[in-house]
Design brief:
The protein is mainly beta. Helices cover 5% and strands 41% of the residues. The protein has three helices and 19 strands. It has a six-stranded antiparallel sheet with strand order 16-15-14-17-18-19. Strand 2 (22-29) and strand 3 form a beta hairpin. It is elongated and about 100 Å long. 21% of the residues are buried.
Length: 298
């Protein structure tokens, strides 16, 4: 089905022996604060000629004034027209394929953008399908699907029915219509935790307490439990367990201190929880197996 075009056309009704010298159309959205748009009609039309305005992307009711000038004398006609929801063929509306909520609560958006003339995409998340209460919006992404929601910034509520929509910005300064609304159920975001780590076979180094000399690896992780404890599993920021093998994969896209690759994490300190404590980690499984005790002064 061909997409609707945001076009308005009208015929010139002019009866005179003198040809029209100048023709101008003015159209303005009937909303407070809107400005009239001037459109010079070229070539100058004659009686019964069809005239088309440029594509209009914003839905609503518009006032239209057409002004004709001949020999220093002008006449004008006023009317109104309405634009519904329509999209320019050069700025097609993207679609949302599915929303995946992972075990740690991470929300992942799978979408199809139509890369023609694509500048960027924008999505909004709301608590209602009318998007009267928008809790998070994001722009500045595009070609590569899927898109991970920045959970530390978004402040998504836990276990709540939410709604999402997406639209496209095009290179001709056009904006597509919003996509169809997709609903999904949020999970419980465990959140990233700031940590300092030491690698297996490292000598004890107090830099794990403060991370100031570059010996400890300062990074962010999530846990399988609300707080660190014996039996907790540690996950990297890409959602993979922080095992020795997975650190090799993680290092292909994120910064990892070289000696951690192939050796793994053996000690870890959490800045948010019990910052004086250092925990023992099993590198092969990323499981916390013990607590060294109060090793970092507060």
């Amino acid at each position: 089905m061909a997409e609707a075009q945001c076009k308005i056309s009208f015929r010139i009704d002019y009866t005179s022996s003198l040809p029209i010298e100048k023709a101008t159309a003015y159209y303005q959205l009937q909303e407070p604060g809107s400005q009239a748009v001037e459109h010079k009609i070229l070539p100058v039309p004659g009686n019964n000629d069809m005239v088309s305005l440029p594509d209009i992307q914003t839905p609503g009711t518009y006032d239209l004034t057409v002004k004709l000038e001949v020999g220093g004398v002008s006449t004008q006609s006023t009317s109104a027209f309405q634009i519904g929801k329509c999209s320019s063929s050069s700025c097609k509306t993207p679609t949302i394929g599915k929303i995946v909520v992972e075990k740690d609560g991470q929300i992942i958006i799978h979408y199809s953008p139509d890369n023609a003339n694509l500048v960027t995409l924008e999505y909004q998340i709301a608590t209602d399908p009318q998007f009267e209460n928008i809790i998070y919006s994001m722009s500045g992404f595009g070609y590569i699907s899927p898109e991970k929601v920045n959970m530390n910034v978004a402040k998504i509520p836990d276990n709540k029915l939410l709604y999402i929509r997406i639209r496209k910005y095009c290179s001709q300064n056009e904006i597509s219509e919003w996509s169809e609304v997709v609903d999904f159920q949020s999970g419980e975001w465990k959140g990233f935790l700031d940590v300092n780590c030491l690698a297996k076979d490292d000598d004890w180094e107090r830099d794990i307490c403060f991370g100031t000399s570059g010996y400890a690896w300062k990074t962010q992780v999530t846990l399988s439990t609300p707080e660190p404890k014996v039996g907790s599993f540690i996950y990297l920021s890409n959602g993979m367990l922080a095992t020795t093998d997975n650190l090799k994969i993680f290092a292909q896209s994120e910064y990892v201190i070289d000696r951690f690759i192939g050796r793994g994490i053996i000690w870890i300190r959490f800045a948010k929880f019990t910052p004086d404590l250092v925990y023992v980690v099993k590198p092969e499984s990323a499981e916390i197996t013990g607590i060294l005790g109060s090793r970092c002064p507060l």
